[in-house]
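Dear colleague,

Thank you for sharing your sequence with our group. We've completed the structure prediction you requested, and as agreed, I am returning the results in plain text so they can be pasted directly into your records. Please verify that the sequence below matches your submission; if there's any discrepancy, let me know and we will rerun it promptly.
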Amino acid sequence: MIYIGADHRGYDLKEKIKLYLKDQGIEHEDLGNFKYEEEDDFPDFANLVVEKIIEDPERNRGILICGTGVGMDMAANRNKNIRSVLAATPEIAIASRKADNTNILSLGADFVGEKKAEEIVKAWLGAQFSREERHQRRLDKIDT
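Please find the predicted structure tokens below.
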């Protein structure tokens, strides 16, 4: 399951990504914000997505969107077993899945347009963790 959340600066891109996921037949759930609300706060939506990922961090995945992506990424990564990547390119997204087994993708709506966001999401969802011993060893050091 893909859980998706965004604040006001990420709201429009979130709505476009939801359409992309629907068109691709990818099961997802929107955890808000459900409308443009200029005074909302990104941690509220990051926390909702993180709660869902923590239920099954190896199977559930999340997509978080704010203006730069940095706030969402920081908020998510404060939690054990959460491995969020702020990806600006499909290559970063793929590498993060292969080497770091990321389970949340953070996007900066101010810097990534709809087309690029779709490319990044597609790449991230299509990539798999390498399961190489060196990569797992590094993750074990983080998740302790």
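Summary note from our side: The chain has one domain: 2-142.

Kind regards,
the structure core
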